[in-house]
Amino acid sequence: MSDAAPSPPSAVLGEHGTGGPLRARTAPSSRRPSGGHGRRGGGGRSLAGYGFVAPAVVFFVAFFVLPVLYAIYLSLRGARLTGGGALGIRRETWVGLANYRDALTDPQLLASLGRMLAIGVIAVPVTLGAALLFALLLDVPRVRAVRFSRTAIFLPYAVPGVVASLLWGFLYLPRTSPFGFTGIGFLDEPALFGSVANIAVWSGVGFNMIVLFTALQSVPREVYEAARIDGCGEWQIALRIKIPLVVPALALTGLFSLIGALQIYGEPQTLRPLTSSISSTWVPLMKVYRDAFTTDDIGGAAATSVVLALGSLLLSLLVLKAAQRRTRSSS
Amino acid sequence: MRPRTRRATVAATAALVLGAGFTACGSSGPSADDPVELSYWSWAPNVEQVVETWNAEHPEIQVTVTDAGGNTDTATKLVTQTRAGNAPDMAQVEYPTLPSLVVGEVAADITEHVDDATRDAFTDSTWALTTFNDAVYGIPQDVGPMMMLYRADRFEELGVEVPTTWEEYAAAAAQVRAADPTSYIGTFSVDQTGFFAGMAQQAGAQWWSVDGDAWSVGIDDEASLAVADYWQGLVDEDAVLQAPILTPEWNAQVADGEILTWPSAVWSPGVIEDVAPETAGEWAMAPLPQWTEGDSAVGLQGGSSSIVTTSSDHPEEAAQFLAWLNGSDEGATALLTTVNNYPAATAGQEAATSNEPPALVAGQEDFYDLAAEVAADTIPVTWGPNYNVTNAAFADALGAAVQGGGSYREALEQVQATTVADMEETGYTVTR
Amino acid sequence: MTTLQSAPRATTTGPSPARGRGRRSTRWLPTVVLLLGAAYCLVPVLWVLTAATKSPGELFTTVPFRPGTGFLDNLRGLFSYGGGEFGRWALNSALYAGAGSLLSTAMSAAAGYGLAKFAFRGRRVLLVALFGGVLMPGITLAVPQYLLLSAVGLAGTYWSVLLPLLVNPFGIYLCWVFASSSVPDETLEAARLDGAGELRTFWAISVPMMLPGLVTVLLLQFIGIWNNFLLPFIMLSDQGRYPLTLGLYTLLARGSGESALYSLAVTGAAVSVVPLVALMLVLQRFWRVDLLSGGVKG
Lengths: 331, 432, 298
Fold this sequence. Notes:
The structure holds 3 protein chains of 3 kinds.
Chain A: H1 21-25, H2 43-75, E1 77-82, E2 89-94, H3 98-104, H4 107-138, H5 146-154, H6 161-172, H7 191-217, H8 221-229, H9 234-245, H10 247-262, H11 266-271, H12 284-294, H13 298-329
Antiparallel strand pairs in A: 1-2
Helix pairs in contact in A: 2-13, 3-13, 4-7, 4-10, 5-7, 7-10, 10-13, 12-13
Chain B: H1 2-24, E1 36-41, H2 47-57, E2 61-66, H3 70-83, E3 90-94, H4 98-103, H5 116-119, H6 124-127, E4 131-132, E5 135-136, E6 139-151, H7 152-158, H8 166-179, E7 187-188, H9 193-202, E8 208-211, E9 214-217, H10 222-236, E10 241-242, H11 248-255, E11 261-265, H12 268-275, E12 283-287, E13 300-308, H13 315-327, H14 329-339, H15 346-352, H16 367-375, H17 387-404, H18 408-426, E14 429-430
Parallel strand pairs in B: 1-2, 1-3, 7-10, 9-14
Antiparallel strand pairs in B: 3-13, 4-5, 6-11, 6-12, 6-13, 8-9
Helix pairs in contact in B: 9-10, 13-14, 14-15, 17-18
Chain C: H1 2-11, H2 17-21, H3 28-51, H4 71-80, H5 85-117, H6 123-135, H7 138-151, H8 158-162, H9 169-182, H10 185-193, H11 198-227, H12 230-235, H13 244-255, H14 260-283
Helix pairs in contact in C: 1-11, 3-14, 4-14, 5-9, 5-11, 6-9, 9-11, 10-11, 13-14
Domain ABC transmembrane type-1 (chain A): 113-319
Transmembrane segments (chain A): 47-73, 116-140, 152-171, 191-216, 245-265, 298-320
Protein name (chain A): Sugar ABC transporter permease
């Protein structure tokens, strides 16, 4: 866990860094306070620290910690029949681990995880790959229309997810689409996975491109000039110098994309009325929504959420660990 | 923390003031100076105009309408908000979801607030839709006796006879495909549980029935499986279109005249009028095709009642308003003319017969006579306490069947299994 | 303003000098690939912009991407719909996103600064908890949040949408990175020696130093709240308090049964995108997204 919360780097990307960018970027994690200056002040200073974090902590407890604890409590409860008569009354009671048993043995949950994986396997690499490609191209000398392309590719980030999904929905339906002539069933399996992933890619590629592009821009130009004088072509510069330099930024964008993929929900939910191929439990969070709201099984929804959150946490930690090992070994 | 404390103080003060108000005029009930304010969720278009009439006539009971987002979202939010104690005083709900709202303690028992005049405004089978164990949980608002909307002009153009049995419908489907390959006689949509259930009822199915405290579930009974096989045959032969309805895609096809019928219910002309206004006048309404030649009874599809919620502090006044809106001659007529609903009250249905037909079927002068005739012979139905589970499972299982090529029959068996398992987990006794 | 403008330039050097110096011709292949990418991202936007100009009758019947004749009517219809609901939604969105992002950024800045520059017991626990917070899907939290807010009588109010979004674990994390990297300990020590209080040091010295990063956090949070759908969907039932996303969703949901509403919804979608795009274009150069990458190292 301690590695998951690293101390921030002492110098970021050459701003105050006196060393070259390579050194600055791959500065080893120092868990000691930066520069050896007395960060650990007296009691008064530490009190001030509490003061600064207090508002955030209060809100964090109120809107994250309490809801999570409440969700765990709810996951142990279920609606059960009380009272006589044919209909009776459903009331919440303690059901122990029954909701967890149901969630873990539910084939629909497993299937939805599979579909989420399929979308993630398409969306994450394509988003990252395209973002890296565009960022590198923007950084190549003597390329035209740079400002236009950069702005255009970034634009979808400003489109709300619901609106983006609806727009693409119109573009996928044969009658309303300018691409109807292709005869591709965008909303039928197997193309459906690509169609859903496409919306995620469209929304995400611009943001990731900007992260990578600014990382590239912060590299002093002299590094490339030196490489050019040594006779390196742009491709070689990109492969040998630029990509290694943006590995930390790539790891970050990768983690974001991964978290995004794990939480995929809005796109298929919005497309659902347009096709019979998307079931109410098509991805895990759709199942959570259905249980919580449509079928009034809030305990089941809470249990599934807890399982998913734990899974996400584990996976993210694994990815972080791997990224850190990478970063370290590249230094 | 400050705001919360202050809020608590305000609430306490408000309670005191309210309490004082009640003691002051406790015996005289609500007055125009101190009206009871009621909130009402309804997705019926223009219903606020009808409510304005009520508000003008009843200064002591003032109603505010909110559209909480159509039938599905309304039911969803009702359950959540009831759990938090925030639900509105009254809400419009569809008949199939009503039992689950009774079981979930969303709908209040309003038996003591409903008088005989209101009860007598409806037929027995309509009233039964909102009554469980002799307790009244809602006032019927509109009903949807099943009928078939069809493109009269295109039927004539292609030389196809209007089918009166499902067998004829299948034959006509093939005929349409042969005569015009771009057109279909109709659509099979996997998320239309209500339609499928209605058709199964017509074939003799009983999806839920109660004997004492024991339930029987018959979603995969012989009649229902026969309906599944029927549609599977049509879809497999590409004789009907398999697609979700009321999407931009489907709407465009309807507007282009490529969908020739929409077997559904009496309310369908209003929907198509909104979806494809340019086709107004080209349509006509026919009785729903039958399984056996000469039969006349049909199921109900859609339609809604309005309930008083358990969150309401004024169930009596709320019930009074709903009785006026749905059961009085004035209210029921307004529902017909302003909201364009087919009223559940018999007075409203009779008033309809002197009305002009909806614009979509403008040429059909006897539209409302036909509707009244059909409405008089509908099949009584019992919806189960977990229709919401069944509804979700239906769309999922049928959707998987049309995608993966599984049979509709197996899908229906799966829906049955899901429904029964859920009821048993909740604690119901299910005999089959 | 000088800090705002000069700081980004230190890292984002703008058009590289090499580009200006190049005497050789344009590189066409990268240019074409970039333009293809731009086209991919622009097509749906162009579709919605042109579709917004079409009258309901033209919407799905005329050639896509060709402007129609109904733009002004659509605009008029949009802003008069339901007694001016659309304008109300737009104001609500501006309120939620504007107030929410400002307050949230202030809170994140203080917390990030506190975490970076002060040692106190429980700091590591807090960091781990915040990291967990980033991973929590909003949908998991929404239901318990709703029930808890109901318990204190806030569900359905403006507060119910504003308050839960104020705490932004990722924003705090970013501010922590910014504070560590751009506020030297020496400066703080000097200020303390001069007798400045902690709050004054923070406000007068550290905040200006962190400002470029704070603009980034502000912008990210603004967009995040503006685009949020789930929380208002669950919290609100009164349409008068809806933000744009939710309002558009209801328009479209109704559009499936009333096709005249489609053109309103499409016009609304086009209109709702405009302010955000404008904001992004204006603030784009102040972004310090490169700083984000500092965090995964370690």
